Amino acid sequence: MTALSSFFNPRSTAIVGASRAPEKIGNVIVKNMISSGYTGKIYPVNPKEEEIEGLKCYPSVERTPEPAELAVLSVPASRTIEMAEMCGRCGVHNLIVITAGFKETGKEGLEMERALLEICRKYKMRLLGPNCVGLMDTHSPINASFAAGFPLKGEIAFISQSGAMVLSILDWSFQAGLGFSKFVSLGNKADLTESHFIEDAAEDPYTKVILCYIEDVENGSHFLDVARRASQKKPVIILKSGVSQAGAQAASSHTGALAGSDVAYETAFRQSGVIRAGSMPELFDLAVAFASQPIPGGEHVAIITNSGGPGIVATDNIEQKGLKMARFTRETIEALRSRLPSESNIYNPVDVLGDAKADRYFYSMDKILADPGVDCAVVMVCPAAVTEPLETAGAMIEMKKKYPEKPLFAALMGGAQLTEGAELLSKAHIPCFTFPEPAITSISGMVKYGRRSEMSSQPGPLKYNDVDPKTIKATFYDVKKDNRLVLLGSEAVEVASAYGIPSAPTALTVSPEEAAKQAEQMGYPVVLKIASPKIMHKTDVGGVKIGLSSSEEVRQGFIEIMDNVHRYLPRVVLHGVEVQKMMPKGVELIIGMTRDVQFGPLIAFGLGGIYVNLLKDVSFRLAHGLTNGEIESMLMETKAYTLLRGYRGEKPADISSIIEMIGRVAVLVTDFPEITEIDINPVFAYTQGASALDVKITIS
Amino acid sequence: MTALSSFFNPRSTAIVGASRAPEKIGNVIVKNMISSGYTGKIYPVNPKEEEIEGLKCYPSVERTPEPAELAVLSVPASRTIEMAEMCGRCGVHNLIVITAGFKETGKEGLEMERALLEICRKYKMRLLGPNCVGLMDTHSPINASFAAGFPLKGEIAFISQSGAMVLSILDWSFQAGLGFSKFVSLGNKADLTESHFIEDAAEDPYTKVILCYIEDVENGSHFLDVARRASQKKPVIILKSGVSQAGAQAASSHTGALAGSDVAYETAFRQSGVIRAGSMPELFDLAVAFASQPIPGGEHVAIITNSGGPGIVATDNIEQKGLKMARFTRETIEALRSRLPSESNIYNPVDVLGDAKADRYFYSMDKILADPGVDCAVVMVCPAAVTEPLETAGAMIEMKKKYPEKPLFAALMGGAQLTEGAELLSKAHIPCFTFPEPAITSISGMVKYGRRSEMSSQPGPLKYNDVDPKTIKATFYDVKKDNRLVLLGSEAVEVASAYGIPSAPTALTVSPEEAAKQAEQMGYPVVLKIASPKIMHKTDVGGVKIGLSSSEEVRQGFIEIMDNVHRYLPRVVLHGVEVQKMMPKGVELIIGMTRDVQFGPLIAFGLGGIYVNLLKDVSFRLAHGLTNGEIESMLMETKAYTLLRGYRGEKPADISSIIEMIGRVAVLVTDFPEITEIDINPVFAYTQGASALDVKITIS
Question: What is the CATH code of the structural domain delimited by B296-455?
Answer without folding.
Answer: 3.40.50.261
